[in-house]
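EI: anyone free to look at a 224-residue chain?
SC: sure, send it
EI:
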Amino acid sequence: MNSWDTSSPAELSSAFDAEHKALDVHKTDSERAIVRKYSRLVSRAPAKYVLDFARQLLTTHGLRWQAYELIAEHPAAFQSIHADELEEFGQGINNWWSTDAFARTLSGPAWRDGLVSDELFAGWASSSDLWWRRAALVSTVAFNVRSRGGKGNTLRTLTICQMLASDHEDMVVKGLSWALRELVYFDRQAVEGFLQEFDEILAGRVKREVGSKLRTGLKNLKKK
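SC: here you go
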């Protein structure tokens, strides 16, 4: 059995990849079982080793969300994340699932826990790349999901939302709606004020979904 103290990060990542490829059926549960196994194997490894292991999974084997979860499950590795490494692990986000895996698992929690600055996310919100703009919005979700340690943060959430209020790129619009809907649980008055202030420039989807959340607690009303 490969272990962190007998294998290099590259060797351990190759063993991980081999188990991943050997799965008869690729489902989230079966793939996550491999993540849990290797998380246990590296639980006592130094932070640098785990980051290098995750880096190999991402860059050599294309196992993106698995790399993110391995970092998130290793307290020392996660706590050692800084802005440059965060952006390194975000390189290549190019669709909704890769962006959301990055923002929900790594960048949002790192921001929530004070490991990186507000300026980093403002920079992403100003990016010409729509996926980095979405990442900025989805990262705010970490502040406002109570089941994942969120305690609410109106200022940081709305700062990013304001920057992207007039952005009508579909994936950004959906991210904006999500960010605002999560904030409703902590500060519905602020969300109501945001909708009023930016009514003329917000996409219809944002006004419809967030308005429904405020009125009914649901994103969309079910059709009868």
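EI: The chain has a mean pLDDT of 94.
SC: 👍
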